[in-house]
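For the sake of transparency, this paper describes our internal protein records without simplification. Because each token names a local backbone shape, the row as a whole describes the fold. One such record is reproduced below, unchanged from the form in which we store it:
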Amino acid sequence: MQTGLPFEEIYHAHKDMVYNLCLNFLQNPQDAEEVTQDVFVKVHEKRASFREQSSLKTWVYRIAVNQCLDALKARKRQKRFGFFTNIFGHENTVEREIPDFNHPGVQLEQREALEALYRRIDALPDNQKTAIILKYLDELPQKEIADIMQVSVKAVESLLMRGKQNLEKK
């Protein structure tokens, strides 16, 4: 069943939420803008398949989380490819620079500490990273996180607990 809202309304109602989520995952405004665009392309393409089994917000969040995780995986693949390229000395390949931490609104004196925290979060398994970001950075309730991640509330509690323990270890 297709949602009755025009795409423009969906976009304007959710663009800031999606951009902020992407920024929390990717820590770079340019990457966040690019992935935000990708999210809304996918929302537009898949709008007809939205079944209203969850709220529109939850559905958009789910797409955004998946796009962010895909972008992070692509970044890691490019990083590994660049590493192997350097080892084997292929000069004809183009290396991509992995963007530095560049989160607007972060004071210069806080940047190092926050960058270290984001690097630790980024090193978590995807499901723990997603739960931590949605809970502590986007400040969503556990029930909504469970809907977005398509897991139980108990599973979210467990992911948050394990994620916090892994952050403390690092």
Remarks:
- Confidence is low (pLDDT under 50) at residues 90-99.
